[in-house]
């Protein structure tokens, strides 16, 4: 094998060399390490990324000499950068060796290592970095300042403040950047002092935007009053503060506080200049302008905000700001809706109209709710549910009377939304529901029980007559409603429905009572395995599979061997809920049986995956070599949904070797599910792949704003085309 890899590593084709680099990671031999040392400096960035990925699979004591040696290769910048990348990814365990290497005399290596210490944050690095603040080389000093900032240790502030005594603008700019990383009251106060020097004002504003510290907002807005703050830079900073990189659950409160501070301190005389500057401003500046407009609710800026709904980068911000205007924005939204031609634009404006609300929104939404376009009508019905208006209530009730049930669920959800916001509507819904349950039309009676249940809350007494309705569809609906609201107390009234003449009603009853039957009347559930309807048997098998009684296991084994496909699938679904229990060996055998129906094998794999047993992992790995793409895809999907990083090497290997593009796309989706940031270097290779580029783009978007820095770092060592795509991804993440 090593001979073949050596030959591939020397091939003229970059893709062949890249695959050789990945293959060398599995070899784990001294000869493979020597080849990887060479590939670490390959002219092609994709090959270098693959070499780094493989070197990370080897023990540190074997790779560190190669990586530190690469730092001294003055003729190959790509190799030096790849070595730094690998050292960063190895992490804190390399730090003792880094400290040892720092004493060497090579200036370029020293600079790379000082920079590296900031990429691997550890307080133990602070003394080493502080030492280099006195170095004779200015690049070394600035790198030490930057790295100290990246350590985010407030204990370093006195040392950094002391450097301000040196009258050196170059170092001061690096100090400002470092303070923005460290943050805290002391750093903020120092930056406020520096702001008074016009020379550093833009750099300080940029730092404020990174810090998520809202105490700077009154300071900045007060200075904006006298024209001391450039308007565009101020808006950029406010936009960045609005989207601070704090945990998502804390962001709404943070944004609400920012809006309060803007309302309290914004100089209103700036509104006219802001309005004039808006059209020519860059997107980051306009993001801040949108935040200001939403906070102030000033109508002179409303049209500007609504215009941004057409900007894919600012649409989310504009929607939130327009919503903050409330009813004062409704008339302008209605006017735009009347002129809108594009379907997506109409849908967005309808949705917004539901949020801004008010009496003026009702008639336009009623008109949209009667449109023929399905999407438009659904959005309008949902928006009516946001309004507290009797006309909206009546329209939604009317939809439930329609023979076509396409919009029934949408209308019902809208009515529920209204009832939750205004409990007074519950009585009205119950009253209308009672009348509808007595009408001749089957669909109307069904809708009547749905309304009645929403109006009654947990009381099910008025629903029980529906269990005897002449219509099977009505009985099914009422069975579900009673079970949802009464819980275990529904057992007695629903038990007779197990003998209902309609098989769909019986199946619904088994679904509703399954767990209670398993606990209280297991024999009844066993008897249902002989029901003439295959779907009733399937539902019974789902619940019986969760029993640990040997007699039940024997019955299920018979089901798996003899019954119809739906019943077998039901049994496997239930077994998956309990880790396959005593039937684990039989389920494993089913998953491996090449002559079994694909649906059965896929269901068996699913049951095994949910067991989390070591043998299950092995079966899923084996399934990646199956001749059927459906089996491979199922195994990949299960690996992705497992949230288990142990599957990552298998998925990355499958991404390289599977011949089917659809299976490769499934692998990428699994990587998305796993949030596999470890796969970033490999996925860079697919951003320009003709077939997989869209899936790869989605992968990077799924990483979220918290991984922007990682993507920015990786973008430094790719080709121009890939870099352009990464810049676009970063723009999307900035606006997510």
Characterize the structure shown:
With 736 residues, the protein is mainly α. Helix content is 70%, strand content 0%. The protein is built from 46 helices and no strands. Helix 17 packs across helix 19 and helix 29 (442-456) runs parallel beside helix 30. The longest helix is centred in the last third of the chain and has 18 residues, at 503-520.
What is the CATH-assigned architecture of the domain at 91-208? Alpha Horseshoe
Low-confidence segments, given as residue ranges, are: none
Global shape: flat
| Biggest sheet architecture | none
Radius of gyration: 32 Å
**The top level CATH class name of the domain at 91-208:** Mainly Alpha
Overall strand count: 0
Number of DSSP helical runs: 46
Summarize the amount of helix as a percent range: 55-70%
User: What is the CATH third-level topology name of the domain at 91-208?
Assistant: Leucine-rich Repeat Variant
Please state the average pLDDT score: 91
Structural class comes to: mainly alpha
How would you summarize what this structure contains?
With 736 residues, the chain is mainly α.
Helix and strand topology:
Layout: H1 2-9, H2 14-27, H3 30-39, H4 45-55, H5 60-71, H6 77-90, H7 95-101, H8 107-119, H9 126-131, H10 138-151, H11 157-163, H12 169-182, H13 185-195, H14 201-211, H15 216-225, H16 231-242, H17 251-265, H18 271-277, H19 283-296, H20 302-307, H21 315-325, H22 330-339, H23 343-356, H24 359-368, H25 374-384, H26 390-400, H27 408-421, H28 424-436, H29 442-456, H30 472-486, H31 491-494, H32 503-520, H33 522-527, H34 534-544, H35 550-562, H36 565-577, H37 584-592, H38 598-611, H39 614-623, H40 629-641, H41 648-657, H42 661-674, H43 680-684, H44 693-702, H45 708-714, H46 720-734
Helix pairs in contact: 1-2, 1-3, 2-3, 2-4, 3-4, 4-6, 5-6, 7-8, 8-10, 10-12, 11-12, 12-13, 12-14, 13-14, 14-16, 15-17, 16-19, 17-19, 19-21, 22-23, 23-25, 24-25, 25-27, 26-27, 27-28, 27-29, 28-29, 29-30, 30-32, 32-34, 34-36, 35-36, 36-38, 37-38, 38-39, 38-40, 40-42, 41-42, 42-44
């Amino acid at each position: 094998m090593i001979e073949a890899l050596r030959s591939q590593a020397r091939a003229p084709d970059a893709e062949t060399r890249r695959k050789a680099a990945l293959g060398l990671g599995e070899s784990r031999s001294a000869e493979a390490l020597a080849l990887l040392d060479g590939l670490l400096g390959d002219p092609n960035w994709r090959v270098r990324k693959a070499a780094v990925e493989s070197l990370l699979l080897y023990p540190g004591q074997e790779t560190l000499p190669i990586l530190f040696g690469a730092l001294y290769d003055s003729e190959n910048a790509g190799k030096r950068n790849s070595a730094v990348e690998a050292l960063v990814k190895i992490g804190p365990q390399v730090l003792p060796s880094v400290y040892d290497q720092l004493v060497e005399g090579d200036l370029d290596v020293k600079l790379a290592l000082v920079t590296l210490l900031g990429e691997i944050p550890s307080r133990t690095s602070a003394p080493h970095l502080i030492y280099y603040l006195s170095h004779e080389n200015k690049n070394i000093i600035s790198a030490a300042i930057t790295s100290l900032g990246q350590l985010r240790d407030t204990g370093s502030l006195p040392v950094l403040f002391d450097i301000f005594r040196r009258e050196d603008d170059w170092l001061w700019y690096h100090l400002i950047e470092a303070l923005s990383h460290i943050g805290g009251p002391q750093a903020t106060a120092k930056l406020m002092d520096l702001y008074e020097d016009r020379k550093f004002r833009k750099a300080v504003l940029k730092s404020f935007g990174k810090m998520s510290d809202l105490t700077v907002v009154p300071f900045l807005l007060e200075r904006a009053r006298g024209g001391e703050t450039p308007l565009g830079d101020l808006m950029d900073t406010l936009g960045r503060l609005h989207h601070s990189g704090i945990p998502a659950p804390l962001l709404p409160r943070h944004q609400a506080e920012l809006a309060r501070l803007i309302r309290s301190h914004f100089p209103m005389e700036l509104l006219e200049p802001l309005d004039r500057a808006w059209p020519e401003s860059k997107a980051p500046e306009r993001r801040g302008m949108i935040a200001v407009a939403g906070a102030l609710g000033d109508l002179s800026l409303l049209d500007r905000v609504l215009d941004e709904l057409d900007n894919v980068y600012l649409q989310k911000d504009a929607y939130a700001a327009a919503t903050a205007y409330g009813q004062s924005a409704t008339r302008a939204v209605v006017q735009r809706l009347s002129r809108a031609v594009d379907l997506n634009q109409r849908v967005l404006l309808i949705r917004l109209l539901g949020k801004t609300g008010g009496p003026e929104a009702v008639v336009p939404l009623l008109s949209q709710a009667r449109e023929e376009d399905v999407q438009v009508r659904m959005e309008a019905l949902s928006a009516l549910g946001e309004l507290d208006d009797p006309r909206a209530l009546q329209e939604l009730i009317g939809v439930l009377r329609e023979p076509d049930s396409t919009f029934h669920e949408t209308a019902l959800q809208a009515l529920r939304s209204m009832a939750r916001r205004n409990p007074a509507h519950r009585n009205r819904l119950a009253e209308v529901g009672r009348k509808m349950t007595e009408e001749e039309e089957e669909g109307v009676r069904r809708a009547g029980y749905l309304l009645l249940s929403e109006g009654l809350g947990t009381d099910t007494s008025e629903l029980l007559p529906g269990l005897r309705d002449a219509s099977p569809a009505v009985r099914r609906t009422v069975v579900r409603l009673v079970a949802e609201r009464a819980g275990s107390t529904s057992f007695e009234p629903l038990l007779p429905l197990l003998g209902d003449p309609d098989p769909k009603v019986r199946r619904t009853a088994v679904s509703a009572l399954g767990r209670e039957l398993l606990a209280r009347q297991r024999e009844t559930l066993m008897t249902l395995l002989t029901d003439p309807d295959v779907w009733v048997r399937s539902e019974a098998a789902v619940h019986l599979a969760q029993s640990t009684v040997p007699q039940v296991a024997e019955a299920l084994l018979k089901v798996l061997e003899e019954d119809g496909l739906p019943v077998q699938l039901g049994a496997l679904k239930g077994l998956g809920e309990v880790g396959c229990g005593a039937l684990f060996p039989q389920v494993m055998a089913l998953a491996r049986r090449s002559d079994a129906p694909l649906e059965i094998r896929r269901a068996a794999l699913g049951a095994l995956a949910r067991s989390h047993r070591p043998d299950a992992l092995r079966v899923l790995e084996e399934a990646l070599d199956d001749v059927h793409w459906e089996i491979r895809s199922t195994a990949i999907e299960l690996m992705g949904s497992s949230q288990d990083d142990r599957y990552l090497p298998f998925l990355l290997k499958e991404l390289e070797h599977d011949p089917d593009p659809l299976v490769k796309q499934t692998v990428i989706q699994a990587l998305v599910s796993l949030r596999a940031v470890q796969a970033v270097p490999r996925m860079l290779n697919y951003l320009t792949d003709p077939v997989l580029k869209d899936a790869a783009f989605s992968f990077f978007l799924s990483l979220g704003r918290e991984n922007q820095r990682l993507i920015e770092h990786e973008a430094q060592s790719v080709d121009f085309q890939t870099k352009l795509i990464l810049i676009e991804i970063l723009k999307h993440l900035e606006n997510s």
